[in-house]
């Protein structure tokens, strides 16, 4: 029911007793009459000291487990479907398909009711950037298209069963200064990437170390790749981390 104030006043206790006890109306039925929800009506009954029935006891609208529903096997007729469709459109619902096509196909972004003026989440915007695309190529070349944890080679895997490898941020994506720095990026197969983020990774391999660890980076001294073209050609492994010493899967 509407969260706004109802147009109809609360019925008297005598009227409640007549509707609920004599006529056998349910709480939702009475709520529909007075523009209230069922829980509000039930509260009225309790306050009026009217004995209530167990919830779900209305045989007219419920059926017990094991009983066949009266609607089983039945379908809406074309006329019924047309009436439901017309009622939905009348209350502002938009048909999913128009003439067999998605109703937004070929329309401008502004036509989408979820359009937010072109605002894109930060992560999606970053992953679409030219800088990230260059870093991706760099990491794949540096790691020779092999999982840094188990050594699986992307060029020899069964492509019908193996999903694409992932580039894993050793340090959180939330540290914006490190997002595009290949020194904190490693290539992992999907299974190893899931393992890294699981409780099974008790040694925290390929995850941030404690501040006193030799693998803890100097955050103030880290810069992003300054020259993207040079980064594509430079294949030497960055020296920020000793990757070989960061552990392997158990």
UniProtKB/TrEMBL annotation:
In terms of superkingdom, the source organism counts as: Bacteria
Supply the name of the protein: HNH endonuclease
